[in-house]
């Protein structure tokens, strides 16, 4: 959308939303406890002395302002959410805590139901009428940046972000900086997420491999051999021809994804260096779409052959639930992220218990495992460029990160809790959180680390993990086969802790230890203007074409027709937009 068109369409909306105001402009008196920027009270407060006092407090991540600072925010809220008696989203213990500790007053310009959020925030963006700060997705963040609505948060972040928040930011490395920085300027505060969640890997029945005298398959040819053996050699020993090789996605699932795609066939694509749904740069420096590349055609050819042989589940994209054959003990291989241990938790109660192990296989022909990675953050705290106290937004985040665990423990604002009562609430984590947990837990089991020597300030669940693993893990301590866990005498730990520990020690082991993993990030994870009107149809075209090729109802050459249609029906224009957005 051209900027002139945007400005013209925004004029009408501005008149309709005159009550919404930005931090740097004059604020109408809303009748709230927070004084407006142009009231007599604030005028008196803005003396040189009080400015100096507030400026000094601003540099302290937890410094309390001498004079009140008001932040105008917006948020989504489930209308069915229950607050403690006499409390509301605009009057609760968390806002009292913020006022007490920081002298920041929160005013909500508007609150929407989750279903209306995208429309409301998009309207605020298009009318150039955004609040002091908001939590938005990548597309909304990039739109605000495109229209020059956002503050450069670099100075505020460097001076006021807490050590914990800075550690989360640094854990994201270059991938995170490329997402939120422009010319070295931090344009949003990312709510970082563990990178392990985006990597799919091969989960395989190790007990079946051992019974048949097989090794974990490292490449596609070995994978075909093992899948065939799982089908033909009765690995469950019941004398029946009722086992399968590779389970695929159900009818509600996807062949590939841009995040943890449980049961998807992403590693089969990656073994061909194919990355559907990803925006990539080719050898000529051009932006290309992974789904339309020759490597994807080769991957589809391989999968079609495997499906025809019965190595991939015949009920691919037809099953109601891909988990069922796994829990029934009939499947030998599937693909999923590190947290798969949670998903198959019921399998730990089986007798005998299936031994699912995870590997960064199958590798490509160069011996590397190419892992498509999710965005290191998918929500962002953005600050209006006209905000007079951008550091106050950092203080809100600092306080949440420091005190949330204490608030939960003491029952502060129990209903609805921090997620419903705290302004700008979102979850932050180390990008390498799961790898760090894997390393520390390994060292703890070996006696190389003591629990009292670990800093848990940025690892909220690690202490509980360390306590639980000592109770659940049996000798040998460096072998995480399911038979080496205490599945009989650990009571509730089997339900509450074992799934997480298996997810870390088995599910994240490849990412934490394998030296042949090549991480592949998309150039862009958001939505462009043309995608808003064309993407659904393009995705339908892609899914139907890929499914038909794999399942044999369309020839492999129909891929070329798909590429032509994809470009003509908006794909070529989207490529140009992605190229511009990813600069």
Automatic annotation (TrEMBL):
The lineage of its organism: Bacteria, Bacillati, Bacillota, Bacilli, Bacillales. Keywords: Signal. CDD domains: PBP2_AlgQ_like_1. SUPFAM superfamilies: Periplasmic binding protein-like II. Residues 28-60 are annotated as: Disordered. InterPro entries: Bact_solute-bd_prot1, SBP. Residues 1-24 form the signal peptide. The keyword Repeat does not apply. This is Sugar ABC transporter substrate-binding protein. The keyword Signal applies. Residues 30-48 have a biased composition (Low complexity). It holds the Pfam family SBP_bac_1. It comes from the Bacteria.
């Amino acid at each position: 959308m051209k900027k002139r068109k945007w400005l013209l369409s925004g004029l009408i909306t501005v008149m309709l939303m005159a009550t919404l105001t930005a931090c740097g402009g004059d604020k109408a008196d809303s009748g709230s406890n927070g004084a407006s920027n142009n009231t007599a009270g604030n005028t008196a407060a803005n003396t040189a002395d009080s400015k100096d006092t507030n400026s000094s407090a601003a540099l302290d991540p937890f410094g309390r302002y001498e004079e009140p600072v008001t932040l105008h925010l917006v948020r989504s809220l489930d209308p069915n959410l229950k607050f403690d008696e006499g409390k509301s989203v605009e009057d609760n213990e968390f806002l009292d805590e913020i006022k007490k500790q920081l002298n920041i007053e929160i005013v909500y310009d508007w609150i929407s139901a989750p279903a209306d959020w995208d429309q409301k925030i998009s309207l605020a963006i298009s009318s150039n009428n955004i609040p002091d700060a908001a939590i938005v997705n990548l597309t909304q963040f990039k739109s605000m940046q495109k229209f020059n609505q956002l503050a450069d948060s670099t100075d505020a972040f460097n001076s006021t972000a807490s050590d914990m928040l800075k550690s989360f930011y640094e854990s994201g490395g270059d991938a995170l900086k490329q997402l939120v920085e422009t010319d070295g300027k931090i344009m949003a505060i990312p709510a970082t997420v563990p990178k392990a969640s985006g990597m799919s890997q091969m989960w395989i029945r190790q007990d079946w491999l051992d019974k048949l005298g097989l090794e974990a398959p490292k490449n596609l040819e070995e994978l075909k051999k093992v899948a065939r053996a799982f089908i033909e050699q009765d690995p469950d020993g019941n004398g029946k021809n009722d086992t399968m090789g590779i389970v695929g996605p159900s009818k509600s699932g996807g062949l590939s994804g841009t995040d943890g795609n449980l049961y998807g066939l992403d590693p089969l694509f990656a073994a061909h260096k194919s990355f559907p749904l990803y925006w990539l740069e080719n050898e000529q420096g051009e932006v290309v779409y992974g789904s339309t590349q020759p490597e994807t055609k080769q991957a589809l050819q391989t999968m079609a052959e495997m499906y025809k042989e019965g190595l991939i589940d015949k009920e691919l994209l037809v099953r109601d639930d891909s988990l069922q054959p796994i829990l029934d003990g009939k499947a030998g291989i599937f693909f999923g992220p590190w947290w798969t241990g949670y998903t198959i938790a019921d399998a730990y109660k089986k007798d005998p218990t299936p031994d699912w192990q995870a590997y960064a296989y199958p590798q490509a022909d160069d011996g590397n495992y190419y892992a498509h990675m999710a965005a290191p953050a998918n929500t962002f705290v953005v600050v209006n460029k006209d905000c007079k106290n951008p550091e106050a937004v950092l203080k809100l985040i600092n306080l949440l990160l420091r005190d949330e665990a204490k608030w939960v423990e003491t029952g502060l604002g129990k209903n609805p809790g921090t997620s419903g009562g705290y302004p700008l609430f979102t979850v932050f984590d180390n990008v390498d959180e799961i790898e760090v947990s894997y390393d520390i837990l390994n060292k703890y089991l070996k006696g190389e680390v003591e629990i009292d020597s670990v800093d848990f300030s940025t690892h909220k669940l690690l202490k509980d993990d360390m306590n639980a693993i000592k109770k659940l893990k049996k000798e040998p301590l460096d072998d995480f086969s399911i038979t080496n866990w205490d599945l009989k005498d650990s009571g509730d730990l089997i339900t509450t802790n074992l799934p997480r520990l298996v997810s870390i020690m088995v599910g994240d082991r490849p990412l934490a230890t394998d030296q042949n993993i090549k991480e592949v990030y998309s150039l862009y994870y958001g939505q462009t203007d043309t995608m808003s009107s064309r993407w659904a149809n393009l995705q339908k075209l892609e899914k139907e074409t890929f499914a038909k090729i794999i399942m044999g109802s369309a020839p492999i050459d129909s891929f070329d027709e798909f590429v032509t249609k994809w470009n003509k029906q908006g794909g070529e224009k989207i490529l140009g937009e992605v190229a511009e957005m990813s600069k």
